[in-house]
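Dear all,

This email documents one entry for the complex benchmark we are building for the journal club exercise. For each entry we list the sequence lines for every component of the assembly. Then comes the predicted three-dimensional structure of the complex as a token string, followed by one or two observations. Please use this as the template for your own entries, and keep the labels exactly as they appear.
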Amino acid sequence: GESVGLHLPTLSVQEGDNSIINCAYSNSASDYFIWYKQESGKGPQFIIDIRSNMDKRQGQRVTVLLNKTVKHLSLQIAATQPGDSAVYFCAVRPNFGNEKLTFGTGTRLTIIP
Amino acid sequence: DAMVIQNPRYQVTQFGKPVTLSCSQTLNHNVMYWYQQKSSQAPKLLFHYYDKDFNNEADTPDNFQSRRPNTSFCFLDIRSPGLGDAAMYLCATSLDPGATQYFGPGTRLLVL
């Protein structure tokens, strides 16, 4: 089966600094990875995704890095803003065509003004 | 805008009193999912529909049922809510199995 962990349950970052949230997964056949942001009282919001044939993907202020060798995924947020404060989940698809996602336990990111 | 809508946003029910949560989508996605999320935990998949095909998770209690009368709507029925069923219930959709899932805002259920 798949287990997905996050290295730190909480992370505090000064506003304007960069933040890095990490995620480890166990199944080497996993082929699709998603980062979600969940603000208090709201549903998870899609941020960025990456497929296993890539090792880096960039969005607006966010970058996802994938290291398949060590089965590690990270989300980098540049120039953090107060609105970035939320819980971030990584989600992993165990293999191609599998409709289920395995969610990590979540990291609570707090941006300090 | 295309979206996933959940009603109500907050639901209060009594112990043992059946309750139905609803989800609708304008994305025309083939797959609809129901998740349960308790405080400070990751979402837990209860079941999903791929078109009309229902797929139940092995550890989903029989107390939880679902209906999908058409492509746009999906319902979560809790037949006899217990105190332990108080949680946020999230609906998600994806175009096809394995595609990106998009979540609704959730319904927070309180059981008295």
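Observations: Residues 86 and 110 of chain B are 5 Å apart (CA to CA). The two ends of chain B are 36 Å apart (CA to CA).
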